[in-house]
Amino acid sequence: MSDVKLRPALSARDLSLHYESSSQATRGIAVDGVSFDVEEGQILAVVGETGSGKSTLARALALEADRRTISSPVIRGGSLKVLGSEVRGINPRRRDRLSIQIGYLPQEAGDQLAPRLTIGENVAEPIFCRDRKFDQDEAGHAVATLIDAVRLPLSTMNKYPHELSKGQRQRVAIARAMVLEPRLLIADDPTAGIDVTVRGTILDILSSLQRDRAFSAVVVTADLSEVRRISTQLAVMYRGVIVGIGDIDDVLGDPRHPYVRRLARSLDASASIPIEAPEEEYRVR
Length: 285
Hints:
Helices cover about 30% and strands about 25% of the residues. It is of the alpha/beta class. The protein is globular.
């Protein structure tokens, strides 16, 4: 048996992220000196209230930092290694090569599908953006495999986004994020705006894909009750810092920060049996 230890898929050390702005009101630290690792094949769930910095962190992990746009965070301190590569100061060419190995599911991703493309074309688009001469049949097979994996009928491929429910569009966005077979998936609140009766299905799909494909993942969510469906590893963010990280039971069983204690109490008070998706959600409208 080999004693060689695999390098983490993600490694942050004292990472600080800012947004640059001419306004003092909107300028400041969004993530303040966080450190953590995500091992190969591991899913880390990140929870926190609105404004805690979790979405900013997700954007940085998906290589969206330092892009010199108003909406992009800027790395101002510490280090961030993604799939073994240091991200701080990375040049555009290296960033593009690295980004091929990362699937990014931003907030409301299902509502960002190209309305004039069919579902099949939306899912296949990243393939042809990378290689316009890619074999059409091979791409079609990859798309069909993923449409099936996200529990949609293959006839969905010929539909348009407006013909699907919000939950179905989110599944399509998941398939699109996975079509290049990434080694790392960053999913920012994948159940946001989704009907409560189908949120569990979205998370179960992510969990099933991860088991089958063994990629690493960071899944951001505002709902602590969803976490156990996807991971045993939890990071809690509060006002830009990580105030609890580790095994879920350890973090919640022995909370060291007042916010984590409140989360643990609220979870105990609201514990309930998850509701599965109704059958009609699986039909294409």
